[in-house]
Design a protein that fits this description.
Radius of gyration: 15 Å
Structural class: alpha+beta
Number of helices: 6
Length: 176
């Protein structure tokens, strides 16, 4: 499957069922910090849940409707990044990403998002990228801001997570 080198220490590759145990371990080790902003750690309670997620992602890839890839640092799975969907009629997508606690602060998310943006515009010929982030997640918000995405608005009460409603800020970048 596809593997893209980000730099000498880091690469992105499509998640496959053989990665399920490692994916589960990264999620489990960072469950509290990831779960503060995202819902999926609450639904990932065993390795089989990671297998199911990977199989669904591969099905979406086969349907040309987005996919998730792993982010590797020095040969170890560090997190994940994906196109949540691809709207081919509007030629746009949304990028999602997360990292395990042991891999934050190394520039991995920024480098991975930058690669995905270039891939979307240059290889897939998409016209718009969106990134949606919890408004209070300042570290995650810094990534689209650093990469030049523009704040387009805030969706209030986007989701109910950890007993409270979370707003989401929408960032966008146009190809031109």
């Amino acid at each position: 499957m596809y593997k893209a080198m980000i730099d000498s220490e880091n690469y992105i590759a499509i998640l496959e069922p053989r990665h399920a145990k490692e994916l589960y371990q990264v999620i489990d080790e960072s469950r509290e910090s990831i779960g503060k902003w995202l819902f999926f750690p609450k639904k990932t309670n065993k390795i089989e849940d990671s297998v199911t997620f990977i199989e669904k992602s591969l099905k979406r890839l086969s349907q040309n409707n987005g996919y998730w890839a792993g982010i590797w640092h020095n040969g170890k799975l560090a997190g994940s990044i994906g196109f949540l969907y691809i709207d081919w009629s509007a030629r746009r997508t949304e990028i999602g990403y997360w990292l395990g606690d042991n891999y934050k602060g190394k520039g991995l998310a920024t480098k991975s998002v930058k690669y995905f943006i270039e891939h979307a515009f240059n290889d897939l010929d998409l016209k718009k990228i969106e990134i949606n982030v919890a408004t209070n997640n300042m570290k995650s918000r810094a990534i689209p801001e650093r990469l030049g995405l523009k704040e387009e608005g805030i969706i209030r009460n986007y989701e109910f997570l950890n007993g409270e409603y979370q707003d989401r800020v929408i960032y966008g970048l146009l190809k031109e």
